[in-house]
């Protein structure tokens, strides 16, 4: 440890390499000591807790839950605060639904039928972006109708829109504040981390306590998950406004308001729109999960289909979510990238007139209001997806079980044994020591605090089991991330083909592929890991690909000119130079893997994921589920800070 | 431009046919069954996430709509969340309840927001099951005393050296960890984590003739495809499951019942009467569940089919005044 | 070592006295302490963790003058110019503008000064990327509350003045660097300030364009006659534009003087080193190279003023049969012959 605390100022490039190697040796040393002690101390102080056993902390959470439930209609906080929020949000969502999704105003159908919505989507896309995405959006929404899921899609869209609008109304001002005030930024960042890592299952049930079952709870659950990106990116946009421009504005005597409205916000506009994009994507992902508390829409179709292992139907609905995600993503991305090109005013006017006419048609006539059920590709998709799944299951299952067993035996079991069977204090000391070596003293303090709190949740043993699976999943994620990422980074064509697949894998709700995975790998930790990798790998791949592409062309050219083989170019130039991207990919991979822990609980991962799921389903396990949710956040914060510290360290060393 | 053209085209089309087709609101089907009592009003029924429940709910909802003229709202909710809904007026009825003494205590005894509305006539069983091929090949496996003999066979990557007992529909209380310990079985409880995981596991075990033992329950639509065999555990006696850590007996049989909100019961409207009177059998439920789960009928269509085939049973449920 | 006041008769527009800017913890203790103030930059850093970007600077800027501040990067010149309008808050000292201490202004008054009296041109232009040229130029007027029609009219005039007519509706990223800086210049001129501040405005530009822009500034100065404070690290730019030049090093003032004063009489080795490569014939005037008339000098040769640059005098001196007399107001100051001229043109030796 002494070697790492040497002054960074005096470091030179060769010495950094020595230090890096030393760090590797120290980590190995720590692991060796740990292993040695494990042999003697195995099974002691593991803090294991049985499935139905509870600690006092869990009971305390249970009581809290009961007290809230019992006092909802008498407590003034509810009468004058939560109930009004609920009323407001409910009304808002119901209004949006009544416009595009649900029968309303005494009509058997919503105000605007499919033709109106399709026209409106096309027109808005053209107005904020360009004609290409307008065509894409129109076609995409038409496909939703063809899939036989028009009403479900509109319910999803309505809920997403409502949640996004509320997210933006709250998020953009907070983001501006965080952009202008360092103190507020420091205050809100951990809260945002918490909001994003906390598994949504954990707060779904409590939310219904506060806001009852219905649109309000679903919207607020979505809001919790979807608001952080726009807050972060707004703050980031404000902070990264060009310094000269800001100074110029100041030197001309702008007031604070003028500065904000005329200089900072316009300069940050692109970044803010990207934040809106991410918020929309997050909201869409969350609306699916909110189906568990009766949120209407496609998520419900997916979850219902799961009860009867109907993969075809689940896939069809999942596909609709992907289509909607792709449309919303491309439109907002194009809007961010459009720059100053304004659409042709005459076309705009004509489009507006046509849209109004289409809306009127869809208001008045049945054929334009209700999508014709005879135009149906949905049942074909259902059939085809079902058959494909059957084929895959019956063909691959014999092989996949062997793969599962091998990986479990070689990788998962040993790691889990080391983490979960060691005395808790030994694990804690080892992790803190490793944090100091590969991260920083600060990261080590965070690790220590998180591990201490993890003990307090009473779920140490489950936490270690989950940590083991998380680490294995992250390793897989990074292997895929590096291999595919390098390929995409080096080949434009590979990028073009693979990227849409990645987008789809990321937006397809995980519930859809759980059934085939269960068929292939049975209920096991490996299944959970596979599901997590499917979700996390696309992010890692994209970051690595961007990193590889970001390596200066001149450097690559120089390497090739001096006779490097392709392999040498990759391993000696491109990968080392994108070390920053690699660490970032690891960081994001970890966070994404952790966000799938609960889904893993549904397919046999047990541990924290199952605790959360069971807590959501059974009253007496509620407190334990909440504690498990907090434990997941603690693991997330610890791993996040640790990888970030490691990233900063490599960046410092690498850039000298 | 394209769009403008399309609209022009449409308008021309409309002008040619002389009319715009059917208008919204004058549709021939119209709303729900007219002519019934208007007094029923809104009926909010919770849908718990299993197919047997949905069969109950589908039939009750269908009858309430068609025969009583209620406006039925179905809400997809987990059990606990549904029970919470009694107090807030979000939920009127839960139409298949599996015991849930904890929830009874909390919502019926303490908060007094719910009341029981009697049996559904369906008998529920929870226990350990094996796929039929296994029971056929090793008939003695159906007695818990012989389970240790087969532990080796049930080993998986998750259970290590012990046999795997697949558990874990997260909605149900399980005593399995205690049972395994107290019965001295060489098994490890592995949490599948969802009903889907359990169903998939049993289905595959039967199809591929692989060994599997796990926690399951009936009625469940899967039984209409695969007749799982129940393993006999030491018989249940009242009170043998009082202390969770010391349980060494089978699960009790459940007389599945209906729970409604206190307000809904006190109002004593026709929908409440229907729920109270509703009673059928395991076989009835299995048929409807099968139509929904295996034949992919919509719950509404399945309910219609059953109601049309069983007018007498339905008649007995209707409020006396009608 | 403070420079002499050139335009003795006029009140200075800006007077800077004992100006300090110290970055770091408890910065305020440094200017007050004679001991700390005497430390070198490195010593100060080690002792206090502070950096003195501007240390104890005094100077005056006369109306209509082009006052150049010159130094290498890190010498504190950019900080100094920002202290004038408190874009960077000075640690100690006075900045008197038309009799008013700017450091004592409240925020509102300061904003008024920035809106009406000063305007600044930045190294990286600092344009608003989301606004077209005319809206960029009109920005200063807009935030003052000038009506749209009026500010657009004014902006168009100024755009014309800087030679960007026809580009009103273009956006910054559609323009070359030189053109962008013309926009920056126009934006500064549009508010009709008393003082124009330039912070290394041309160092990001290509050499050819830089020369154009320098000529542009000279032309504008002739046309509009504004007082200018011009920051640069380029000596030839300083000599070309500056009426007077202030040389900074490590935050401190080294010398103030006209270009020929610096070249002919550098205050120390630092300045001498700086001006070594300057073509002396372009900068030196006759007064720096003349010698007292000797008895044997024929005094009926042509006459030239003392401020004529050597290069311009070369031809007449070499063409004349006799030495040239340097005369001001009829008084004979000295004599310049072929020998003096040739020694300057041949260069090399320091005077």
UniProtKB/TrEMBL annotation, chain A:
Location in the cell: Cell membrane; Membrane
Keyword annotations of the record: Cell membrane, Membrane, Transmembrane, Transmembrane helix, Transport
Listed PROSITE patterns: ABC_TM1
Superkingdom of source: Bacteria
Pfam families according to UniProt: BPD_transp_1
Transmembrane parts of this sequence: 24-41, 77-96, 108-127, 157-180, 200-226, 272-293, 313-334, 346-366, 424-455, 467-490, 510-537, 590-609, 621-639
Principal localisation: membrane
InterPro entries recorded: MetI-like, MetI-like_sf
Protein's membrane topology: Multi-pass membrane protein
Listed CDD domains: TM_PBP2
Residues annotated as domain ABC transmembrane type-1: 153-332, 463-643
Family, similarity comment: Belongs to the binding-protein-dependent transport system permease family.
Name of the protein: Binding-protein-dependent transport system inner membrane component
From TrEMBL, chain B:
Gene3D superfamilies (UniProt xref): Glycine betaine-binding periplasmic protein, domain 2 (3.40.190.100), Periplasmic binding protein-like II (3.40.190.10)
Classification via CDD domains: PBP2_BCP_2
Matching Pfam families: OpuAC (PF04069)
Domain ABC-type glycine betaine transport system substrate-binding: 44-309
SUPFAM superfamilies (UniProt xref): Periplasmic binding protein-like II (SSF53850)
Domain of life: Bacteria
Name of the protein described by the UniProt record: Substrate-binding region of ABC-type glycine betaine transport system
Source organism: Kibdelosporangium persicum
Taxonomic lineage from the root: Bacteria, Bacillati, Actinomycetota, Actinomycetes, Pseudonocardiales
UniProtKB/TrEMBL annotation, chain C:
PROSITE patterns in the record: ABC_TRANSPORTER_1 (PS00211), ABC_TRANSPORTER_2 (PS50893)
Entry superkingdom: Bacteria
InterPro entries in alphabetical order: AAA+_ATPase, ABC_osmolyte_uptake_ATP-bind, ABC_transporter-like_ATP-bd, ABC_transporter-like_CS, Gly-betaine_transp_ATP-bd, P-loop_NTPase
Gene3D superfamilies: P-loop containing nucleotide triphosphate hydrolases (3.40.50.300)
Transport keyword on record: yes
Keyword field contains Nucleotide-binding: yes
Pfam family, one: ABC_tran
GO molecular function: ATP binding
CDD domains hit by this protein: ABC_Pro_Gly_Betaine
Record keywords: ATP-binding, Nucleotide-binding, Transport
Domain ABC transporter span(s) in chain numbering: 39-275
Family: Belongs to the ABC transporter superfamily.
Protein name: Glycine betaine transport ATP-binding protein OpuAA
Source organism per UniProt: Kibdelosporangium persicum
Organismal lineage: Bacteria, Bacillati, Actinomycetota, Actinomycetes, Pseudonocardiales
């Amino acid at each position: 440890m002494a070697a790492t605390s040497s002054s960074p100022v005096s470091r030179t490039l060769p010495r950094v390499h020595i230090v890096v190697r030393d760090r590797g040796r120290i980590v190995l040393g720590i692991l060796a000591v740990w292993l040695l002690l494990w042999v003697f101390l195995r099974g002691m102080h593991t803090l294991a807790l049985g499935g139905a056993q509870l600690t006092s902390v869990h009971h305390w959470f249970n009581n809290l839950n009961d007290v809230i439930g019992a006092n909802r209609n008498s407590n003034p906080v509810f009468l004058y605060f939560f109930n009004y929020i609920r009323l407001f949000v409910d009304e808002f969502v119901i209004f949006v639904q009544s416009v595009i999704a649900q029968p309303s105003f005494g009509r058997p159908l919503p105000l605007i039928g499919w033709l109106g919505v399709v026209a409106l989507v096309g027109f808005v896309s053209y107005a904020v972006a360009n004609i290409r995405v307008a065509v894409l959006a129109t076609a995409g929404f038409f496909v939703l109708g063809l899939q036989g899921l028009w009403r479900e899609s509109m319910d999803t869209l309505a809920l997403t829109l409502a949640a996004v609008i509320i997210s933006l109304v709250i998020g953009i001002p907070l983001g501006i504040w965080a952009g202008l005030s360092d103190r507020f930024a420091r205050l809100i960042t951990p809260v945002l981390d918490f909001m994003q890592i906390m598994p949504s299952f954990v707060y779904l049930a409590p939310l219904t306590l506060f806001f009852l079952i219905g649109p309000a709870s679903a919207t607020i659950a979505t809001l919790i998950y979807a608001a952080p990106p726009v807050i972060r990116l707004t703050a980031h946009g404000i902070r990264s406004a060009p310094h000269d421009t800001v100074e110029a504005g100041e030197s001309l005597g702008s007031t604070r308001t003028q500065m904000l409205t005329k200089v900072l916000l316009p300069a940050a506009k692109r970044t803010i729109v990207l934040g809106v994009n991410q918020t929309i994507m997050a909201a869409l992902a969350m609306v699916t999960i909110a189906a568990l508390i009766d949120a209407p829409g496609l998520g419900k179709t997916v979850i219902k289909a799961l009860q009867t292992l109907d993969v075809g139907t689940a896939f069809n609905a999942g596909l609709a979510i992907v289509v909607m995600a792709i449309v919303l993503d491309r439109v907002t991305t194009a809007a961010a990238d459009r720059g100053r090109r304004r659409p042709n005013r005459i076309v705009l006017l004509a489009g507006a007139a046509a849209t109004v006419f289409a809306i009127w048609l869809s208001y008045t006539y049945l054929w334009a209001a209700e999508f014709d059920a005879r135009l149906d590709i949905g049942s074909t998709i259902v059939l085809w997806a079902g058959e494909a799944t059957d084929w895959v299951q019956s063909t691959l299952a014999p092989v996949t079980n062997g793969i599962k067993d091998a990986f479990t035996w070689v990788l998962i079991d040993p790691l889990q044994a080391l983490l979960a069977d060691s005395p808790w204090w030994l694990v804690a000391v080892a992790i803190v020591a490793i944090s100091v070596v590969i991260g920083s003293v600060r990261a080590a303090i965070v690790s220590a605090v998180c591990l201490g709190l993890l003990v307090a949740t009473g779920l140490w043993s489950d936490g270690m089991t989950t940590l083991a699976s998380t680490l294995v999943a992250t390793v897989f994620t990074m292997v895929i991330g590096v291999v595919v990422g390098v390929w995409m980074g080096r080949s434009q064509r590979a990028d073009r083909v693979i990227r849409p697949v990645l987008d789809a894998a990321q937006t397809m709700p995980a519930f859809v592929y759980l059934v085939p995975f269960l068929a292939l790998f049975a209920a096991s930790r490996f299944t959970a890991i596979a599901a997590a990798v499917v979700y996390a790998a696309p992010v890692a791949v994209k970051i690595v690909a961007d990193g590889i592409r970001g390596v200066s062309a001149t450097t690559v050219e120089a390497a090739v000119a001096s006779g490097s083989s392709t392999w040498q170019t990759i391993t000696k130039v491109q990968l080392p130079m994108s070390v920053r991207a690699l660490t970032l990919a690891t960081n994001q991979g970890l966070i994404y893997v952790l966000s799938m822990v609960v889904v893993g609980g549904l397919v046999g991962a047990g541990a924290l994921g199952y605790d959360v799921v069971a807590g959501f389903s059974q009253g007496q396990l509620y407190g334990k589920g909440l504690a498990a949710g907090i434990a997941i956040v603690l693991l997330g914060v610890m791993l996040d800070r640790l990888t970030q510290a490691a990233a900063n360290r490599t960046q410092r060393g690498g850039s000298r | 431009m394209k769009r403008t053209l399309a609209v022009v085209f449409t308008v021309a089309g409309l002008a040619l046919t002389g009319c715009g087709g059917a208008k919204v609101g004058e549709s021939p089907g119209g709303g729900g069954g007219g002519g019934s009592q208007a007094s029923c009003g809104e009926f909010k029924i919770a849908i718990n996430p299993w197919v047997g429940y949905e069969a109950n709910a589908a039939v009750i909802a269908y009858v309430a709509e068609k025969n009583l003229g209620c406006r039925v709202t179905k809400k997809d909710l987990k059990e606990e969340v549904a029970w919470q809904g009694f107090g807030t007026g979000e939920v009127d009825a839960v139409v298949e309840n599996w015991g849930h003494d904890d929830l009874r205590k909390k919502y019926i005894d303490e908060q007094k927001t719910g009341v029981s509305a009697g049996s559904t006539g369906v008998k529920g069983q929870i226990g350990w099951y094996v796929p039929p091929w296994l029971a056929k090949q090793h008939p003695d496996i159906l007695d818990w005393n012989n389970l240790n003999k087969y532990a080796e066979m049930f080993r998986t990557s998750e259970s290590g050296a012990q046999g795997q007992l697949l558990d874990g529909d997260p909605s149900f209380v399980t005593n399995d960890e205690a049972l395994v310990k107290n019965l001295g079985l060489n098994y490890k409880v592995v949490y599948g984590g969802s009903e889907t995981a359990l169903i998939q596991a049993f289905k595959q075990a039967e199809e591929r003739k692989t060994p599997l033992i796990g926690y399951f329950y009936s009625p469940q639509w899967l039984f209409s495809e695969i007749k799982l065999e129940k393993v006999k555990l030491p018989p249940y006696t009242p009170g043998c499951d009082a202390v969770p850590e010391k349980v060494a007996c089978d699960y009790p049989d459940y007389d599945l019942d209906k729970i409604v909100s206190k307000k809904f019961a006190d109002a004593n409207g026709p929908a409440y009467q229907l729920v109270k009177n509703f009673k059928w059998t395991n076989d009835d439920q299995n048929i409807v569940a099968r139509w929904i789960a295996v034949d992919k009928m919509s719950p509404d269509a399945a309910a219609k089919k059953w109601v049309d085939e069983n007018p007498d049973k339905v008649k007995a449920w209707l409020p006396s005044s009608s | 070592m403070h420079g002499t006041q050139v335009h003795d008769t006029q009140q200075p527009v800006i007077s800077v006295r004992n100006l300090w800017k110290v970055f770091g913890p408890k910065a305020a203790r440094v200017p007050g302490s004679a001991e700390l103030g005497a430390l070198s930059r490195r010593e100060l850093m080690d002792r206090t963790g502070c950096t003195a970007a501007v240390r104890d600077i005094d100077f005056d800027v006369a109306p209509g003058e082009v006052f150049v501040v010159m130094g290498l990067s890190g010498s504190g010149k950019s900080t100094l110019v920002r202290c004038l309008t408190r874009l960077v808050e000075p640690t100690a000292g006075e900045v008197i503008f038309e009799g008013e201490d700017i450091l004592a202004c409240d925020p509102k008054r300061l904003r008024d000064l920035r809106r009406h009296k000063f305007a600044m041109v930045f190294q990286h232009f600092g344009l608003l990327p989301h606004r077209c040229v005319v809206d960029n130029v009109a920005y200063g007027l807009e935030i003052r509350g000038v009506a749209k029609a009026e500010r657009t009219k004014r902006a168009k005039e100024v755009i014309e003045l800087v030679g960007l007519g026809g580009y009103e509706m273009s956006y910054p990223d559609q323009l070359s660097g030189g053109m962008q800086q013309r926009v920056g210049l126009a934006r500064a001129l549009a508010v009709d300030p008393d003082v124009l501040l330039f912070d290394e405005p041309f160092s990001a530009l290509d050499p050819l364009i830089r020369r154009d822009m320098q000529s542009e500034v000279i032309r504008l100065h002739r046309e509009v006659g504004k007082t200018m404070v011009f920051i640069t690290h380029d000596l030839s730019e300083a000599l070309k534009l500056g009426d007077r030049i202030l040389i900074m090093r490590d935050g401190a003032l080294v010398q103030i003087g006209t270009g020929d004063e610096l070249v002919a009489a550098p205050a120390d080795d630092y300045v001498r080193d700086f001006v070594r490569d300057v073509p002396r014939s372009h900068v030196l005037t006759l007064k720096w190279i003349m010698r007292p008339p000797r008895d044997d000098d024929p005094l009926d040769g042509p006459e030239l003023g003392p401020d004529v640059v050597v290069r311009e005098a070369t031809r007449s001196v070499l063409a004349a049969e006799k030495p040239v007399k340097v005369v001001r107001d009829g008084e004979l100051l000295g004599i310049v012959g072929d020998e003096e001229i040739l020694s300057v043109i041949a260069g090399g030796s320091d005077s």
